[in-house]
Design a protein that fits this description.
This protein is α/β, with parallel strands linked by helices. It has a single domain, classed as 2-enoyl-CoA Hydratase, Chain A, domain 1 (Alpha-Beta Complex). The protein contains 17 helices and nine strands. The strands form two sheets. It has a six-stranded mixed β-sheet with strand order 1-2-3-5-7-9, with helices on both faces. Strands 4-6-8 form a three-stranded parallel β-sheet. Strand 1 and strand 2 form a beta hairpin. The radius of gyration is 20 Å and the shape is globular. The two termini are 29 Å apart. The structure holds 3,5,7,3',4'-pentahydroxyflavone. 3,5,7,3',4'-pentahydroxyflavone binds next to helix 2 and helix 16.
């Protein structure tokens, strides 16, 4: 049906290739719906010992969810079930399937990986990243929030680095990703085909986790020092606050070029997104993954219905003028009630997650 995701088995390995290279392999509803049943089948098939997921085209693993299609559908007020609802339900169900996957799930992350790309990788057991990695959660730039479990995995990164990454959309390289704990291995891009061949050729009679770890370790190369690690202390100092105003004031007090640039970056993001995201990350700190996914589904429906989502998509992905006109335009104009409303239960429209082993 869909050529946008290629599904095959090679020996004991189930292989997923995201195959929309012109859209940087952005994840569509159709791709979620093609992939999910295949993952169920591989989870149940004793001849499949591991799943590998990668992106086609050499530039991107996955640039995110197909937010452009979601925004267009909201703008057209399409009749029938909304694409925002269908897409986020399917994406969270898929992330949940991966989070609870009973076999080694190995992402080969070569190039751009943002938003939905983390959803397809961070929930599995292993992530091999390359020298081409560009990792980010940039959603506050398009009027939404770090979804696909950002409320769960960002607070579990060291110190306040997850808060920093989720609010600013800052990019990470391979060394940063390994230090964060996102990456489990760092492999030369040119050796990924050999790594895949080794996973296919290996003897899977020992426990799968140990087999996968041993094969990956054979391709691992140290990426050197992380720039993010070097800034961890100042990030912890500036991003510990529970209010955006406190974070901006801490950056101002810091007085360095980095702090000024970071403050300027935050002031370009959707004020509503920033306030919602900070609250999401603080709640997620003390919550398990499934509860966080239910919270995020509510946020996805609330924020995709707000004007900043249309405006963010216009400014970043359609007109590409990078000059969004946010509404409300400033942090001070976003009321606590507006933020709170985004977290409210929606009795007719909640995320239902099946119990998975
Ligand atoms: C924030 C995002 C996304 C983004 C840019 C942001 C996102 C996403 C894409 C994207 C990029 C290139 C494409 C495409 C989508 O960009 O989620 O189809 O060709 O998918 O600042 O969250």
């Amino acid at each position: 049906m869909s050529e946008d995701v290629l599904l095959e088995t090679r020996g004991a390995v189930g292989l997923v290739t995201l195959n929309r290279p012109k859209a940087l392999n952005a994840l569509s509803l159709e791709m979620c719906r093609a992939l999910h049943p295949q993952l169920n089948a591989w989870a149940a098939d004793p001849s499949v010992k591991a799943v590998v997921i990668r992106g086609a085209g050499g530039k991107a693993f996955c640039a995110g969810g197909d937010v452009r299609a979601v925004a267009a559908s909201v703008a057209r007020r399409d009749a029938g079930p909304s694409l925002s609802r269908e897409f986020f339900l399917a994406e969270y169900a898929l992330n949940h399937r991966i989070h609870h996957f009973p076999k080694p799930f190995i992402a080969l992350v070569d190039g751009i990986c943002m938003g939905g790309g983390l959803g397809l990788s961070v929930h599995g057991a292993f992530r091999a990243v390359t020298e081409k990695l560009l990792l980010a959660m940039p959603e506050t730039a398009i009027g939404i929030f770090p979804d696909v479990g950002g409320g769960w995995f960002l607070p579990r990164f060291p110190g306040e680095t997850g808060t920093y990454l989720g609010l600013t959309g800052a990019r990470c390289d391979a060394a940063d990703a390994l230090w964060l704990g996102y990456a489990t291995h760092r492999v030369e891009s040119s050796r990924l085909e050999d790594l895949l061949a080794a996973l296919v050729a290996t003897d899977w009679s020992a426990p799968g986790r140990d087999v996968a770890a041993r094969v990956l370790q054979g391709f691992h190369q140290d990426p050197g020092a992380s720039g993010l690690a070097a800034r961890a202390e100042v990030i912890a100092r500036c991003f510990q606050g529970n209010r955006m105003e406190d974070i901006l004031a801490a950056l101002e007090r810091e007085g360095t070029a980095w702090a000024e640039e970071t403050r300027a970056t935050l002031l370009r993001m959707s004020p509503t997104s920033l306030r919602v995201t900070l609250r999401q990350l603080r709640i997620g700190r003390g919550q398990d993954y499934d509860a966080t996914a239910r919270m995020e589904y509510r946020l996805s429906q609330a924020l995709t219905a707000r004007p900043d989502f249309q405006e963010g998509i216009r400014a970043v992905l359609v007109d590409k003028d990078q000059k969004p006109r946010w509404n409300p335009a400033t942090l001070a104009e976003v009321t606590d009630a507006e933020v709170e409303a985004c977290f409210a239960p929606r009795p007719e429209d909640e995320l239902e997650l099946p119990a998975l082993s």
